[in-house]
């Protein structure tokens, strides 16, 4: 009985941490993975650095954004923050 009373606060703290920290982070990571998987040529995107551009092409690890006429930049796909279309 004493063991249960001793462990109960730790179990409660872990449960609170799971629902307030771990679960939302997993949900956000799932959204990011879906966004990266759905990336298409012609999508207007914003990078984590705040640069906006149109996707010209992409491969497994990189995307190439046209940010201005004649200017194409290479970014890692994980730098994708938002697809604005």
TrEMBL record:
Signal peptide, first to last residue: none
Keyword Cell membrane: yes
Localization in the cell: Cell membrane
Membrane-spanning segments: 6-22
Source organism superkingdom: Bacteria
Gene Ontology BP terms: protein transport
GO CC entries: plasma membrane
Pfam family, one: YajC
Family annotation (InterPro entries): Preprotein_translocase_YajC (IPR003849)
Membrane topology (UniProt): Single-pass membrane protein
Keywords: Cell membrane, Membrane, Protein transport, Translocation, Transmembrane, Transmembrane helix, Transport
SMART domains associated with the record: YajC
PANTHER family according to UniProt: SEC TRANSLOCON ACCESSORY COMPLEX SUBUNIT YAJC
Family stated for the protein in its record: Belongs to the YajC family.
Protein name: Preprotein translocase subunit YajC
Organism, scientific name: Nosocomiicoccus massiliensis
């Amino acid at each position: 009985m004493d063991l249960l009373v001793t462990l109960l606060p730790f179990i409660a703290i872990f449960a609170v941490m799971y629902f307030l920290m771990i679960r939302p982070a997993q949900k956000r990571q799932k959204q990011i993975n879906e966004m990266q998987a759905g990336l298409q040529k012609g999508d207007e995107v914003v990078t984590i650095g705040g640069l906006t551009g149109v996707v010209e092409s992409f491969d497994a690890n990189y995307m190439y954004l046209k940010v201005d006429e004649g200017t194409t930049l290479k970014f890692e796909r994980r730098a994708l923050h938002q697809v604005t279309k």
